[in-house]
Amino acid sequence: MLPASAKAPHKQSRKQSISIGRGTRKRDEDSGTEVGEGTDEWAQSKATVRPPDQLELTDAELKEEFTRILTANNPHAPQNIIRYSFKEGTYKPIGFVNQLAVHYTQVGNLIPKDSDEGRRQHYRDELVAVSYQGSQESAKVISETENLEEDEEPKELETESGSQTDVPAAGAAEKVTEEELMTPKQPKERKLTNQFNFSERASQTFNNPLRDRECQMEPPPRTNFSATANQWEIYDAYVEELEKQEKTKEKEKAKTPVAKKSGKMAMRKLTSMESQTDDIIKVSQAAKIVERMVNQNTYDDVAQDFKYYEDAADEYRDQVGTLLPLWKFQNDKAKRLSVTALCWNPKYRDLFAVGHGSYDFMKQSRGMLLLYSMKNPSFPEYMFSSDSGIMCLDIHVDHPYLVAVGHYDGNVAIYNLKKPHSQPSFRSSAKSGKHSDPVWQVKWQKDDMDQNLNFFSVSSDGRIVSWTLVKSELVHVDVIKLKVEGSTTEVPEGLQLHTVGCGTAFDFHKEIDYMFLVGTEEGKIYKCSKSYSSQFLDTYDAHNMAVDAVSWNPYHTKVFMSCSSDWTVKIWDHTIKTPMFIYDLNSAVGDVAWAPYSSTVFAAVTTDGKAHVFDLAINKYEAICNQPVAAKKKNKITHVQFNPIHPIIIVGDDRGHIICLKLSPNLRKMPKEKKGQEVQKGPAVEIAKLDKLLNLVREVKIKT
Amino acid sequence: QAEVEETLKRIQSHKGVIGTMVVNAEGIPIRTTLDNSTTVQYAGLLHHLTMKAKSTVRDIDPQNDLTFLRIRSKKHEIMVAPDKEYLLIVIQNPCE
Q: Residue A25: CB partners within 8 Å, gap ≥ 6?
């Protein structure tokens, strides 16, 4: 215990004062007189100077003695090191903590003499030393002294010198003098070998000279490709794929290799043909469309009229209507042929067929079948020519591409519009039972039980023939032979000769399939049935001259109409022998037709170029429209047809012109809606309408 | 083939038609009734327009396709009927 330490704070002050004093003295010695004056003052006042931040303690505290124990413990060493003991599985304090404090370390390069490295070095040195024994004696002495002086010399030198002294010093002093310079260097030149005995070896091989070798080819041909990938292009690609797949399927089904070969040949021919013809054919579709567009432009006003024009004047015209001329169809090739037949296509409502021929017995020439579309008034869509005049035609309802035609020479033919050759697909001939007189009317019937197409024809030779298309051959069956009643002449032997009647027109009942009417040249109308070939169901004494047309009412099942060259149009109820209505038109009537939209409207055309439209519901006695429609006054109108859906009629004349007319609203009147009552539409209403009229007439008749 | 030729002739001789031309898929005129420079100009311009119109129609509904294109201007009407590989252009003066 050192008492000095107890009085540390006090001593501090003293030390400070002393140091201050010393410092001043030094200054005094160093500096000039000015400071010296100050030091005198300082030196005089040896009183203790308290630093301002010194602790202020009481006397008792000042006297307090603090005990300090000096130990050999490392004050920095931790006193409680805890280690986890795996043996016991707990944390345990280590009993003994290392108190060693290392203040300074330096790695030295002294090697103990007895170690391996020491011995090795010693051995090497010996070898070196042996070679320079003799010359080194004096140098040794010098070296010895040098060694002794230099404390840093390795000990081995000492040992060396020690060992060397033992060796007989039979060295020449001369050598020593000569090699004085060398020898001191030699021991110093000893290699410093490394501890790891590491040595490096390297070798370099000969680098081969490099040489470039090149080869150049022609660059592959390049083209630029650009395409757009739109939704529709992708769609197109898919569609093509589908088609290809379907084609391959069909080809597989086609089987026989012979067929395939022929197919391939045909394909090759086709491709070569196509490439030759410069593909102008492909424009055909576009050309057609453009032609129609051009026509539409030219006849724009007509097209507008057709669609939208309603004659406003009809409101002021009491129940009288007009016909507005629209388009005119004519073709140079059919210029001098009269229109002998008109028929609308049941599927394409703007397409109609016109048959051209001649009614003149003396002047018989060729015939033509033209099909016009309202979209293109300047040129027909289809054109067929034949040797003999066409007298009648009919388009099949289910197959709108089949047109049945009757010729002046008694032949019938079927034209297929899908194959636009000029020749008919099927034709009757003298062998196959053609008529011997002109065929006046043909009409398609429903397919027979074998799904064969069949149609009927009526001719002046008195036969009504049913033609069936069996395996691309026309087979005929005589249905009825018309006989003139009451003209049986008795010949001896009891045979009865019948004069053959000449049929000029017929019409099939809309609902009762087997029943049909035939008009004859004598003016009689026979009601016949397909099943009875010899007997007529009924006979009507219709006209004084040949019956030109008969037509069943499209709505009313009992009513039919007939017209004749005797200037009259008559409307009948087939149960009553006398006509319901008779109209005298002052001129031979060429054709009559019922309107498809009303049971009481019909149109008649006369040879004086007039068209008459009647509506029985409005005016029972007179036509509500009486209008000259012929292109030129001289022309006689031969046929008329109503369009099934549009309010237009087509009228054909004997110069080959067809005129399309629009019916004014008055002509198309529908029953007026009474306020509050619903308008009933449909055939029932039409039938009822007509019935009412008929009943009126019948009552009158019964009364009379 | 003759039918198409006839149809084109008829169109050309129709009332008010100024000119007709047939252009192939790349916009190169194949057949024309107008002079060369006008033809080339019409062909190039209308080809682009038709492609654009066709693309528009088909983008809206890929199952649909352009049937024809009509441009009515003050002086005349240009009618374009696109086909699979060809374009038929007719310029008409709709007489009014």
A: A39, A43
Question: What CA–CA distances, in Å, run from A694 to A84, A556, A579, A687, A703?
Answer: 128, 11, 11, 10, 14
Among A230, A239, A290, A419, which would you mutate to test the B interface (most chain B Cβ atoms within 10 Å of its Cβ)?
Answer: A290
Distance from CA of B37 to the nearest CA of A (A): 22
Strand-strand pairing, A454-459 and A601-606: unpaired
| Partner A contacted by B37 (CB < 8 A) | no
What's the pLDDT score for residue A46? 67
pLDDT digits (tens, 9 = 90+) for A465-514: 888 887 777 778 777 777 665 444 444 455 555 566 778 888 888 787 78
Size of interface A-B (CB pairs under 8 A): 97
- Give the residue, A334 or A258, on which the prediction is more confident: A334
Residue where the block lists tokens 């979209």: A375
Q: Give residue for tokens 């529709």.
A: A232
Partners of A230 on chain B (C-beta within 8 Å) are: 55, 58-59
Contact A411, A392 (CB under 8 A): no
Q: Could you report the per-residue pLDDT of A132-164, keeping only the tens digit for each?
A: 775 665 555 555 555 554 444 444 444 444 444
One DSSP character per residue, A644-681 reads: SSSSEEEEEETTS-EEEEEEPGGGGPPPPPPTTSPPP-
A309 exposed, middle or buried (CB, 10 Å; 0-12, 13-18, 19+)? middle
How many residues appear in chain B? 96
Residue A287 to chain B, least CA–CA distance (Å): 7
C-alpha distances in angstroms, A351 versus A46, A278, A334, A442, A638? 146, 32, 18, 19, 19
Residue A365 clears pLDDT 70, i.e. is over it: yes
What token pair was written down for A91?
């944390």
Closest CA to A591 of A340, A320, A322: A340
**Using CA atoms, how far apart are residues A288 and A284, in angstroms rounded to an integer?**
6
- Please check whether residue A391 is in contact with residue A357, taking contact to mean a CB–CB distance below 8 angstroms: yes
- The pLDDT value given to residue A672: 52
How far is the CA of A23 from the CAs of A8, A19, A29, A40, A686, in angstroms? 21, 6, 10, 13, 147
Decide if A373 contacts A386 (C-beta within 8 A): no
Pairing mode, if any, of strands A589-594 and A601-606? antiparallel
Taking the C-alpha atoms of residue A244 and residue A237, their distance in angstroms, rounded to an integer, is 11
How does DSSP assign A540-596, residue by residue?
Answer: EE--SS-EEEEEE-SS-SSEEEEEETTSEEEEEETTSSS-SEEEE-SS-EEEEEE-S
Q: Output the CA torsion A267→A273→A279→A280 (10° steps).
A: -130
Q: Which residue of B has its CA nearest to A288?
A: B7
CB A689 within 8 A of CB A637: no
* Residue A516: closest CA among A524, A505, A27: A505
B26 close to A (CB below 8 A): no
- Write down the CATH superfamily of domain B1-95: Dynein light chain 2a, cytoplasmic (3.30.450.30)
State phi, psi for B64 to the nearest 5 degrees.
-90, 165
The structure tokens 């797949």 sit at: A245
Residues 6+ apart with CB under 8 A from A447: A398, A453, A454
Residue A388, both tokens? 């003999």
For residue A14, the number of C-alpha atoms closer than 13 Å in the C-beta half-sphere is 6
Between helix A116-131 and helix A155-166 the angle, nearest 10°, is 50
Determine phi and psi for B31, rounding to 5 degrees: -145, 140
Q: Which of A289, A406, A299, A386 is nearest to A343 (CA)?
A: A406
| ipTM here | 0.78
* Rounded Cα gap, residues A301 and A291, in angstroms: 17
